[in-house]
Amino acid sequence: MFRGTHRHSLDSKGRMNVPARFRDWLSAHCDGQLIITIDAQSQEGERCLVAYPLPTWEKVERRIAELPSNNTAARQFQRLFVGQSEELRLDAQGRVLLSPNLRKFAELDKELVLVGQIDKFEIWDAARWDTCQENWLATANGFAGLGDLVL
């Protein structure tokens, strides 16, 4: 589904090209429909957006709907994650228009990095991605706690 790291530019209108490999999958499996929202679990300095194919989003949404409405953390998460989500469709050139609200949250400038995450992909400001990646690589020994997952 969604693998790899792809660098793209945001145009002056806020449109983002979707990598051909991602675009092909989206077109074949969900008619180019996707949901983009904020990463509500971002750590400080790691703000990004998350893009879900519509069928995957619908599964996520069902799980979120099952959260207890009397749980304050669940309600806050729902308000941020679902409340900031936007339903988009690829245009004829394979682009999506990122709203000013989404761009502001992730502090997206001109250069972007799209990072495949198997069933979804993340959208990062390129400079922030580069910094975070360096930090993660510097502390990669912390991955040992994942056991056999790390090959």
UniProtKB/TrEMBL annotation:
CDD domains: MraZ_C, MraZ_N. The keyword Transcription regulation applies. The gene is mraZ. GO terms for molecular function: DNA-binding transcription factor activity; transcription cis-regulatory region binding. Its main location: cytoplasm. It comes from the Bacteria. This is Transcriptional regulator MraZ. Keywords: Cytoplasm, DNA-binding, Repeat, Transcription, Transcription regulation.
